[in-house]
Structure formats: structure tokens, C-alpha cells
Design a protein that fits this description.
- The protein has 101 residues and is of the alpha+beta class.
- It folds into 2 domains: 53 residues, no CATH class; 47 residues.
- The chain is 57% helix and 26% strand.
- The protein is built from 2 helices and 4 strands.
- Strand 1 and strand 2 form a beta hairpin.
- The N and C termini lie far apart (68 Å).
């Protein structure tokens, strides 16, 4: 099985990056936070250990992370709206009951 990795860099505002490794042999997924100045040497070591750099995997994985974050945000909004609806519905039921409707 193949082994892949990619480097996620938040840009110039940070001094660290994340190297994410996928090992097809055992299914392991590992993230390692490194200082940017050590990342290149670390990645060279990965390549020597039969890991392949994959921009395609990086793009797909990051899209999934973003989509998951959006889903969590929307699910939280859904639950808040559902709770607000249930509260309003219960208040309406109590008023109707009080008025004999």
C-alpha cells in the first residue's frame, strides 16, 4: 500500500506548519506540528521512507475539513433554532390550554 503526506502551512503569520501523513499499510493518519525551518528536512526523511507528497490529497483533505466545520456550524444553528421552536410551541400550547382552545 502507498504512503502519502502533505504539508499544511497557515501562511506567514505563524512559525509552524502541520505535516499530515497517511499510511496505507496500516491505515494510520498522523499529524505532526513542526517549525517551518525543520519541515523541509522532515519531509525529505518521509520521502526516504517511501512516503509520497500529494497535493491532490492535501486539497481533498482540506476541503473535507472545511466542509465538516461548516456542517458543525450549521448543525449548531439547527439545534438552536429547534430549541427556540420547541420553546415557542410549548408556550403556545400552554396559552391555548389556559384559554380552553
Amino acid at each position: 500500500m502507498a504512503k502519502y503526506f502533505y504539508v499544511y502551512d497557515n501562511g506567514e503569520e505563524t512559525t509552524e506548519c502541520i505535516v499530515k501523513m497517511f499510511n496505507g499499510d496500516n491505515g494510520a493518519v498522523i499529524e505532526k506540528v513542526l517549525s517551518k525551518d525543520k519541515a523541509e528536512g522532515f519531509c525529505e526523511g518521509l520521502i526516504l521512507n517511501d512516503f509520497n507528497h500529494s497535493d491532490e490529497l492535501a486539497n481533498a483533505d482540506m476541503k473535507e475539513v472545511i466542509a465538516k466545520a461548516e456542517l458543525v456550524e450549521k448543525m449548531n444553528a439547527y439545534h438552536l433554532a429547534k430549541d427556540a421552536y420547541n420553546e415557542a410551541n410549548n408556550a403556545l400550547k400552554m396559552v391555548k390550554e389556559k384559554l380552553g382552545l
